[in-house]
Amino acid sequence: MDTEGRAVHLVGSIPADDAEQAMRTVARRLGDRLRTLPDGETGERRNWIVHIVESLRTHPDLEVARQGDWSDYDHATRLRVRAHHRLRGDALDFGHVAAFDASLPVFSQIRADTGLDDLAFQVGIPGDLDIALFTLGPVGALRHRRAFTDATLREIHAIHGKAGFSVVFQLELPVELVFVTQMPRPLRPAMATFLARGVRRLARLSPQGARFGIHLCVGDLGNKALGRMRDAQPLVVLANALLRGWPSERPLEYVHVPLAAGDEPAPRDEAFYQPLSQLRLPADVRFIAGFVHEASSADEHRRILGVIEGQLGRRVDVATTCGLGRRTPEAAATTMDRAAELVHDPV
Known about the structure:
Layout: H1 19-30, E1 36-37, H2 50-55, E2 62-66, E3 78-81, H3 96-114, E4 120-126, H4 128-163, E5 167-173, H5 174-182, H6 188-204, E6 211-216, H7 233-243, E7 252-258, E8 286-290, H8 298-312, E9 317-319, H9 329-344
């Protein structure tokens, strides 16, 4: 199969001391194999939204409902809205704008130094439902989602206003995929349709012309998955629901899907991937297969890539299932190298 057009995608976090080290390491290692470049989400950001939830402990409208140490999903900190208080989006700050402001000069310099003029700055944005649920739990998320939607939109508008078309916003959606996965198979389409409506609304209310990617996820706290799929059917159902009615004036550039699960490599059984043939992906939306894993061999990667592309009938970009920030630097380097080999390796 012709390999022209494949690329390597990095989901977000990278084990490094700071954004400059992360981005320079990745640019040196992968170079023109990349279409987008994240800032590595280093330091406290390496564990996705844990630092955001912890930062909200002192918010005047919130209080701790359950103390947690984030050692696993059952020991996460849970907050609640104080009695007789109203949570508003203009009083929430998730820190995305400040992180972007700090990293943008480094990104611009790296792009200039490497001559990678087409490289876009990838900014990870947790879905509004996702951050609401991890902060307040299911009931609190449903009651107070509006505040999280408004805050998320404010930060997207601010970043887009600073950098415009050079930024791709990656909407990160573990809650949606885990919910669909946990539903009985006949009920998955209805749940996916309901959840996709909120994601599309977030995109529709973002600035016109804003570029988007979707990162479906099964969780990666401590390099452990929150949900597991018996086959790829849940992610296909959710992706199809997201694609239906996506606002055309907010370009959707890619859909990244998890085909491994935390510390577990991608399944070897070809039957796992068969539902991918039902994915209704427009020709201009890239499919990013998140199956590269340090525990799989190069031969296993090539075989799985061949199965995926055979089911889809098209070339795909390659990635890990989630960010590399929970891996050791050695494991991260191994997975990046294996992904790079696949881009130009015949299958």
